[in-house]
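Limitations
The structure tokens in this dataset are predictions for the assembled complex, not deposited experimental models. Users should treat interface geometry with appropriate caution, especially where small molecules or nucleic acid strands are included. An illustrative entry is reproduced here so readers can see what is and is not provided.
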Amino acid sequence: MRPDLCLRNAGRRYGLRGPWVLRGVDLAVGPGRLVRVEGANGSGKSTLLRLLAGIDAPSEGRITGRPARTAYVPERFPPALPFTAVGYLTHLGAVQGLSRAAAARAAREWLERLGAAAYAETPMARLSKGSSQKVAVAQALLAQPGLLVLDEAWTGLDTTARAELERAVAERTAAGGSVVFVDHDPRRLAGLSDATYAVRDGGVVRQEPSQTAAAPGPHVVVETQGPPDGRLPEEVRRTVSSAEETGPGAHRLSVPAPHSDVVLRALLTARPPWHVVSVAPQATAR
Amino acid sequence: MTALMRYHAALLMRSQRWLPPFLLYAAFLAIGIQAGQPVLDSLGYTAAALLPVAAWLARICVTGEPDAARGCAAAAAGPARAHVACLLVALAGAAALGTLATLAVTLLSDPVASDHRTRVPLPAACGAGLLAALACALLGTAVGALTSRPLLRSPGRAVLALLLAALLSLVVSGSPARAAVQGLVTGSQQGTVPLPLPPLAAAALVTAGALALAGALAARRSP
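Predicted assembly:
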């Protein structure tokens, strides 16, 4: 198991005498954790994310335990690059340690998942804002990063790509990767974050779950049948919001929508495999 | 590192921002070099003119990548490695350009010393010219690295500093570039071919230090 990513008493300022943007930050992100960062505009959220992603070094304090594969999605992605979408992604995949063939394959797969396969051969300069944001997201997901840092990555994406990115985040955390994100929409991955930190007045404060009080996001009900006396696989128990035993080995699971694929995959690949009886969206009781 | 350098090389080639310094170098050579001149003099000029061109090329490589794209590459590979890779691409470009120019100038020049009588062996002269050009490419890259992001971030000041530093590296005594060029010119006057290895070694050391400094500061002084 790799160590937590830790910021210890970290601070960052621009220039030798500039004002401190952040100071005295203590924060830890464990493997498989999803961390939300909140704060007003200009509070230093992006600076914190750049420290975590290793793009900027702390001016004081230390940062330890960053996984070898780190990926970052910036707020605004420039189309001013002289590549096609797939050409840029292949370069970035190779930089992240994939072979060029694997990088090109992953590039096409992610463009397809995000609904931008039609733009694979389009020069980036001709992409719309939303499509170049899809390239920025694809870039970060190519090499299955151990740490994924998302700075307003959902902004500018269409609805299907937003949902796909939520599922990609669920896949990363299920595979033991850490994800840190900022998003202006409080319903983004609602109820799924393991921790929420607020950036204000140059410091970072951990929010208690009651303070964040996020309404749970959309859920899916999964009816599943395992062996009698069978225990739900560990990964499933960790992910579901609630599990109710309805008969010998039969369970009704309530799963956050972004995690539904992860749960189904865990059930079907368990040894022995579980039978999926039905999957249905949960009626929202609000 | 290979993947990073490929990425930066593709960025440089496809952006076509390499064209102005290449044209400037061609113009330098067209003005200063004529067929039939003593080979070592011409090679000295060829090497000296490469230095500001290499510095400009380094600046182009450093400033060519949009900030957000730089962030993505820096997260993936580390900001220091990303920055050094981009400077190495500039150095490779300058070295390739210097090699081409040296070969062409060798073919165009007369194998004689300054007095137009003493014979000078062409292969040895070409070798000395290549070493001097490499020393100037190295030092030019160092100048470019030290006068652009992350050390100097205001474009106006950076360009002035780049011009001044490039000029000083060619005229200040003690500069490896000046020593290499001076070696060729003196050799031409005396009818001997120098072997500018000490200046080349010094230039390599200076450049390694400059690249290491720029790389180390890449994460500390951005954006």
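Some entries come with short summary sentences. For this one: Chain A has two domains: 51-212, 219-281.
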